Amino acid sequence: MSHDTVVSVKNLHVNFYNNDRCNQVIRGINFDLRKRRILCIVGESGCGKSVTANSIMGLLPDLSRIEKGEIHFYNDDKDIRIDQLKRKGSEMRKIRGNGISMIFQDPMTALNPVFTVGYQINEALLSHGRAKNRAEATKASIGLLREMGIPLPEKRFYEYPHQFSGGMCQRAMIAMAMSCRPRVLIADEPTTALDVTIQAQIFELMLDLKNNNDTAILLITHDMGVVAELADDVAVMYMGNIIESGDARSVLTEPSHPYTKALLNSIPVLGRGKTQKLEPIKGSTPDPYNRPSGCQFAPRCPYAAPVCEERLPDERLIAPGHMCRCCHDRLKEEGQHHE
Question: Phi and psi (nearest 5°) for 242?
Answer without folding.
Answer: -85, 110
